[in-house]
Specification:
Layout: H1 3-12, H2 16-38, H3 67-71, H4 86-105, H5 113-136, H6 145-157, H7 169-202, H8 209-252, H9 281-309
Amino acid sequence: MNLASFAEIAAAFPWFFPGVAFVIGACIGSFLNVVIYRVPQEESIVTPGSHCGCGQPIKFYDNLPILSWLALRGRARCCGRPFSVRYPFVELLTGLLFVACWLRLSPGGTFSPGLVVCGWIFLSCLVAATFIDLDHMIIPDVFTLGLGVFGVLLSFAVPALHGQHTDFFIGDSLRSGVASLLGLLVGSGLVLWIALLAEAALKKEAMGFGDVKFVGAIGAFCGWQGAVFAVFGGACVGTVWFAVAWIWEKISGKAAPVAPPSENPEGEPVALGFGAHVPFGPMLAIAAALYFLIFRDGVGAWFADVAVLF
C-alpha cells in the first residue's frame, strides 16, 4: 500500500486511522503499566507475564486495555481484589496521546510513518517517566540517558523529526542530528545551571539530577526550543498544579487527590508547602507533550522573531 492509498482511505473514512492509533496506544499503555511497576524495582518487563497480586496469571481476555477493567468492574476475576483505576487511565491517556500525535503529524492523511512512530515513542516514554516519578521521585536512566541517546539516533534516521523535508537525505539527516544534539546539550545545560544557582541561593539541593538528564532527552526530540519551553512551561504547569491542590486543601480540609507527593530533604513525607521536595518530572513531561503536539510551530516562530531582533 502506497502513501496515496493511505490518503484515499483517510479521506473516505476519516475515523479509521485515528481509531487504529487509539487501539495501538491503548495496547502500548497496557504495556506501560508493566513498565511503570517493574522498572523501578529492577524486574524484567518481559517475564513473568501479567499476573494478579495473588499470583494467578491473568488470562488474555481479562487483559484487554480499558475494556477488561470495565467488564470486571475493577476487580480480579480470580480472587476479587481491586485493581487500581490508574491502569485503565494510563491506557486511555496513551491512546488519546497517540490519536493526538497522529492528527498532528498526519494532517489530511499525509502519512509519515517514521515521524509518527518517533512521536509515539517519545510520548510513551513521557507517560512512563511521569508515573514512575510520581510513585518513587526518580526517573530511571532508561528514560533520561537512554531516551536522549535514542532521540539523537532517531533524529539522524528520521530528519522530519526536526523539520527537515528536502530531497537531499544526507544533508537533512546531518542537520536533524545536529539539532537533536544541540537540544540535548542546551536542555541539560540550562537545567544544570538553574539547579546549581538555586542550590547556591537556597543552601540545599533544589532539583534532582534526573531532571537535568530528562530535559536533555526532551531536547533530543524537540530541539533546544522545546527543551527551553519544557523548563519554563513545566514551571507554569507546576504553579497551576500547586494552586489547584492548595485551594482544594483550604476549602475541603483534606489532601488534594491531584497533589504531587512531597517529602523533606531526609525523604520523609510532608504536607505540600514551601521547602518540600516534589517531583518535577511530571511537569516537564506535560510541558514537553504540549510543545510537541500543540505549540511547536508557534514557539519556533517566536524564537525566530526574537533572533531577528538581535
